Amino acid sequence: MSEKTPPAFDDSHPAYGKISDEQFSFLTQYLSNKYGLRIPREKKVLLESRLVKRLHALKMTSIAAYIDHVFKTEHADAEYQLFVDHITTHKTFFFRENYQFEFLKNLLPDYYRRLGSTRQVNIWSAGCSTGEEVYTLGIVLNELRNDMPSLDYRIVGSDVSVPSLKSAAKGVFSSELENIPDRIKEKYFTVVPGRKNPSLRFNSPEVTSRISLGVLNLNNKQYNLPCHFDFIFCRNVIIYFDARTRNEVLERIVARLKPGGYLFLGHSETALGTTLPLKSIQPTIYQKLMT
Ligand SMILES: C[S@@+](CC[C@H](N)C(=O)[O-])C[C@H]1O[C@@H](n2cnc3c(N)ncnc32)[C@H](O)[C@@H]1O
């Protein structure tokens, strides 16, 4: 892949970090085939600004060198994970779209009763990023156990980004904490000492013992998951996919939902206009039909 490159590491050179048309086609084609991601031309500058961070970190001279490094060298594995992490958007926060968690809270007592007390509620956070959604679900379910001590639940969090999942597993958060009520902060988090930015560690073994995290590319034709789910949260993920991938992913996700179970999408995502066996309960919340 050829382009005019600055002669040595020189991040003030006007060509530094610029993606040529040929490189843009290569990268977007690759990301579309592998992950279903749609990156329109207008996003070229965004792509450059994300990859230039890796160029800086590696003191690389050009995007061409970076592409060679990621796709051709034996060091690719670790850098490949960072490449995927930098390409994808990870914005998330605790209690995001809280009306959905309120909906879950109100629904669960009846839902659980119908399951029979010996059953387990299984929840999947598909595209969980750095874990805020997973821990929010853990808090919501654990709080419900105050009135329903027998409530047994498991939460699976999956994402395509290994660095994000590692961060989720650490459970240390220094931002995106604003929506957490003080009482919940005190109950579920401890302050991490000696940090410049005040950081909180999620510290509830009772909840974390019910959470498992794993890598899953939603664009894979088959999903390796431990069970079918009562509730699936796939929020602010399919918005990044092309139309075909969006439909295929929704189809595979809904196949993983138990009849009568619920699907939660992000505020600008919809399952309307598909032929999936779903009933729309309210915008972004769907129930899988029983037959
Ligand atoms: C904006 S975050 C959403 C996080 C969380 N669900 C929320 O709503 O706050 C989108 C996540 O989707 C993940 N993602 C993107 N493409 C994916 C794919 N093909 N398979 C699985 N996860 C993917 C990204 O890595 C990112 O962490």
From TrEMBL:
The keyword Cytoplasm does not apply. GO terms for molecular function: protein-glutamate O-methyltransferase activity. The keyword Heme does not apply. It catalyses: L-glutamyl-[protein] + S-adenosyl-L-methionine = [protein]-L-glutamate 5-O-methyl ester + S-adenosyl-L-homocysteine. It comes from the Bacteria. InterPro entries: Bact_Chemotaxis_MeTrfase, Chemotaxis_MeTrfase_CheR, CheR_C, CheR_MeTrfase, CheR_N, CheR_N_sf, SAM-dependent_MTases_sf. This is protein-glutamate O-methyltransferase. GO terms for biological process: methylation. Residues 19-291 form the CheR-type methyltransferase domain. Keywords: Methyltransferase, S-adenosyl-L-methionine, Transferase. Its EC number is 2.1.1.80. PROSITE patterns: CHER (PS50123).
